[in-house]
Amino acid sequence: MSYFTHQEDRRITEYALSFMGKRVPWRKLATTMKTGKTAEQLRLRLMSLKRRFGPTPTDVFVDVGSGIGNVVAQVAIETDVAASIGIEVRKDVAGLGKSRMDAFIDLTAALGAVIIHDADIKEMRFEIEP
């Protein structure tokens, strides 16, 4: 694969993020960047960046103010994190999120990594294990 500059990496990442949840038109980016790189090279570079800098199996994702847990569920499904934790101060909303995760865990095993706490972050204690 050809060399990519830091600026090109940033542009590829920002472009892909602008299409979150949609298909990325790599050919369009390849023609607008004018670097001589193909759409396939750009797509492969993003995959390489995600592998290098993305979440790992030892990472824990935390979403403060998680609501019903849509984001924590998506992270659990799309990445290989050890746990995806949501913290929601509203007990009724957190309860709804917990019940939705339980309802779909048989269909999507990755939801087993989701934990939703009904708590105020200001009153929580955190411990870090080495």
From TrEMBL:
Keywords from the UniProt entry: Chromatin regulator, Methyltransferase, Nucleus, S-adenosyl-L-methionine, Transferase
Annotated PROSITE patterns: DOT1 (PS51569)
Cell compartment(s), UniProt: Nucleus
Any matching Pfam family: DOT1
GO biological process: DNA damage checkpoint signaling; DNA repair; methylation
Catalytic activity: L-lysyl(79)-[histone H3] + 3 S-adenosyl-L-methionine = N(6),N(6),N(6)-trimethyl-L-lysyl(79)-[histone H3] + 3 S-adenosyl-L-homocysteine + 3 H(+)
Class of enzymatic activity (EC top level): transferase
GO-annotated molecular function: histone H3K79 trimethyltransferase activity
Cellular-component GO terms for this entry: nucleus
EC code(s) of this entry: 2.1.1.360
Keyword Transferase: yes
InterPro entries: DOT1_dom, H3-K79_meTrfase, SAM-dependent_MTases_sf
Keyword Acyltransferase appears in the UniProt entry: no
Residue ranges annotated for the DOT1 domain, each copy included: 1-130
Note: In contrast to other lysine histone methyltransferases, it does not contain a SET domain, suggesting the existence of another mechanism for methylation of lysine residues of histones.
Biological role: Histone methyltransferase that specifically trimethylates histone H3 to form H3K79me3. This methylation is required for telomere silencing and for the pachytene checkpoint during the meiotic cell cycle by allowing the recruitment of RAD9 to double strand breaks. Nucleosomes are preferred as substrate compared to free histone.
Protein family membership: Belongs to the class I-like SAM-binding methyltransferase superfamily. DOT1 family.
Protein's name according to its UniProt entry: Histone-lysine N-methyltransferase, H3 lysine-79 specific
UniProt lineage: Eukaryota, Sar, Stramenopiles, Oomycota, Peronosporomycetes
